Amino acid sequence: MSLSNKSTSSNSQDVKQVVSEQNVNQTALAGLLSSYHELNPSCVDELHEEPSALEFMRYVARNRPFVVRGAAVDWKAFLKWDAEYLLNTMGSEKINVAITPFGNADAVVFQGNIPVFIKPYETSEAFDQALGYIQQQEDSGQGQSEVKYLQTQNDNLRNEYEMLFADVPKSIPFARIALEQQHPDAVNFWLGNSHSVTSLHKDNYENVYVQIRGQKHFVLLSPVETACVNEKPLPAATYERRHTTESSGEVALSLRIDELAEKVPVAIWDPDAPDHNATPMSHLAQPLRVTLNEGDMLYLPALWYHKVSQSCGNQGYCCAVNYWYDMDFGGDFWAASKFIRDVALQTADK
Amino acid sequence: MSLSNKSTSSNSQDVKQVVSEQNVNQTALAGLLSSYHELNPSCVDELHEEPSALEFMRYVARNRPFVVRGAAVDWKAFLKWDAEYLLNTMGSEKINVAITPFGNADAVVFQGNIPVFIKPYETSEAFDQALGYIQQQEDSGQGQSEVKYLQTQNDNLRNEYEMLFADVPKSIPFARIALEQQHPDAVNFWLGNSHSVTSLHKDNYENVYVQIRGQKHFVLLSPVETACVNEKPLPAATYERRHTTESSGEVALSLRIDELAEKVPVAIWDPDAPDHNATPMSHLAQPLRVTLNEGDMLYLPALWYHKVSQSCGNQGYCCAVNYWYDMDFGGDFWAASKFIRDVALQTADK
Ligand SMILES: O=C(O)CCC(=O)C(=O)O
Ligand SMILES: O=C(O)CCC(=O)C(=O)O
Asked: Does A16 touch chain B if contact means CB atoms closer than 8 Å?
């Protein structure tokens, strides 16, 4: 809200009230952040075996993440998913590939001064070709060419990658029992290299994420930290492959605004560049950082903001599996989280 | 906030903003209430046996109440606590009695136009005398004399009423296991008649409440409904017994303001008189009502507002036991509930 000095004495009272109302919401939001951080540890709990359903439910009740080190070391996937096995199993099966110029799928890019939310170019390729490309790019360190990420997030492990699904549990026992869901809503397969970064976002799901090859680096923010992430309704855009000139055979990725798409709120603050696009609250965030090594499992609670990057070791690819269980919209968690976000958005608007 | 018409054209923009900011918080609070009510049942779940620790934890996670019909029908207390047994066991043991003129302990009373928060006159009496008084008052229907309630809420069943503690479980198994607390923080004994009403308030405890004799009528409001209950910081007062005139031997209860006591926020809206002391949000409350019959158990989740009244049947007294377990201040529940209350209080201030 802009407050000029032009107010006459007759309205200075009103103007003070405007300022104080805005302050009051900001004070309440700051109080929320400080009490949350006082009452909660500043790191992710580490377990060394899977929790029981009851132990898990205690984490769900608190909406707090944990990592189970080595939870998947007995999984067939952990024992077998080397490149050779993946190639033998998937061969030249057609699969969906997300392609971006910089590994920035579902990210914010600036068109001049205007931020837009960009979705990857999606196309179909043979699995063996895509894996070869990803590994070769990792080995050569060639970040300048197109970055490919196999990450459709549409239950692809029970569909496109069905042949690999036998190598992982159909469901995660503690989550199945605690959440009373016989099957997860989606089981996703992720394969990429260190050039792909998933930008800060949240999902309406309870997420059990298991690293199979390479490492994943998670940066996590609780839903109560919504006032820190600077969500803005951005125009949506998609990468397209176009010929660089009319005559040439060369193609390059360029951006097309989806004129008809509704604007969706996107977090434009990046906890790894905290001085840019910050809100007055961003410096009060206390991001949790955790790295998953091969065989580790993360419980990422519903509505937590997460940014995810990866490193690949000598296999030239990172690969993971995750289980999305429906979150519980009952009780007060969802309604209260939405309320905090509503107040944060309207306070930022001023 | 009062908005006069005196604002000049130069500041009408600011004034509009004041109004819209206030509206915006009210809209957010109304949105919270409507999404909460859309996503949750409008009645208390009824179980017919005690839940497992895991089932209980699902209720804790949602912060939702339930009642278990007949949960205590095997308890010694349920089988034995008739007047004769109580008198034989407690005899003329001295116990603490809360005395009020109208059964209104911890309630709001008006001193002229000024609301104050009144605490009962507390004194020590022989158990047999107090019980006799309570029963006789109930039988005679004489509401006009002093009302007595045995309700110290200070773990009295493990202290003053120790001789009765053997007749109830030391802890409630599902709560002990789920909440990882070997012993409750307090176990309270309540004995009174239909003239006592406990006014709307909340506690920082997970509460398991068990009715032994008579009926209890609970009116419940979720912590997200805080904007409906009109909490106001009130001066505290206590009932005192004073001689009615200097010379007479007669005593009567009168009110003394505790000048040194800090003002504490007290809910002044009563869901049973919804048109009085209402906030602009009160009509959006959806109070849950549940009656406990003899042997029934209620899980009353932490921070829920509750108003409690009772009826006694032919025994002439109502008697109950409750277990307070520490609530979990971790996770986001406590911090988020406090935030909603902060916004509600400041919006009401305008
Ligand atoms: O692994 C990634 O790149 C992102 C994971 C993610 O966003 C999710 O599991 O929801
Ligand atoms: O039984 C009553 O009168 C009140 C009960 C109560 O407020 C409680 O258990 O916290």
From this structure: no
DSSP class of residue A224? G
Which residues, in sequence order, are bridge partners of residue A99?
A121, A148
Beta bridge partners of B119: B238
What's chain A's Rg over C-alpha atoms? Answer: 22
Report A:164-203 residues touching B (Cβ under 8 A): 177-178
Residue of B nearest to A178 (CA): B54
DSSP classification of residue A68? E
DSSP string, B115-150: EEEEEPEEEEEEHHHHHHHHHHHHHHT-TTSPEEEB
Distances (CA, A) of A222 to A85, A292, A300, B327: 38, 19, 10, 20
The ligand 1 site (C-beta within 6 Å) comprises A 190, 198, 203, 207, 209, 216, 306, 308, 320, 322
Q: Which of B339, B346, B349 to mutate to test the interface with A (most CBs of A within 10 A)?
A: B339
Measured torsion, CA atoms of residues B301, B306, B311, B317, in degrees rounded to the nearest 10: 70
- Range scoring the smallest mean pLDDT among B6-20, B102-116, B140-154: B6-20
Q: What is the pLDDT of residue A20?
A: 58
ipTM: 0.91
β-strand B66-68 against B297-300: which pairing, if any? Answer: antiparallel
The C-alpha of A199 sits at a distance from chain B's nearest C-alpha, in angstroms, of: 24
Give the separation between CA B158 and CA B99, rounded to whole angstroms.
22
Query: What are B56-71's pLDDT values in tens digits?
Result: 999 999 999 999 999 9
Residue to mutate (ligand 2; options B154, B172, B217, B322; most atoms within 8 A of CB):
B322
Tell me which H or E stretch contains A20: helix A12-39
Is the CB of B21 less than 8 angstroms away from the CB of A178? no
Question: Read out DSSP for A134-177?
Answer: HHHHHHHT-TTS-EEEB---SSGGGTTTHHHHTTS-SS-HHHHH
Of B140, B127, B236, B136, nearest to B191 by C-alpha is B127
* Smallest CA separation from ligand 2 atom 1, residue: B308
Residues in chain A closer than 8 A to B302 (CB atoms): none
Residue B248 near residue B241, CB atoms below 8 Å = no
- Name the residue of chain B whose CA is nearest to A63's CA: B331
Residues of A in contact with B178 (CB under 8 A): 54, 58
Integer distance in angstroms from the first to the last C-alpha of chain A?
Answer: 4
Between positions 33 and 52 of B, the ones with CB within 8 A of A are 35-36, 39-40
The pLDDT tens digits for B295-319 are 999 999 999 999 999 999 888 999 9
Cβ-defined contact of A32 to B224 (cutoff 8 Å): no
List the domains of chain A with CATH numbers. Answer: 44-330 (2.60.120.10)
Of the candidates B203, B269, B332, the residue with the CA atom closest to the CA atom of residue A339: B332
Q: Which two tokens stand for residue B139?
A: 């039988």
State the smallest CA–CA distance between residue B17 and chain A in angstroms. Answer: 7
For tokens 């009210």, the residue is: B26
Distance from the Cα of A276 to chain B's closest Cα (Å) equals 27
- Residue A167 and residue A272 in contact, taking contact as beta carbons nearer than 8 Å: no
DSSP-assigned letters across all residues of A246-305: SS-S-EEEEEEE-TTSPPEEEE---TTSTTSS--TTGGG---EEEEEPTT-EEEE-TT-E
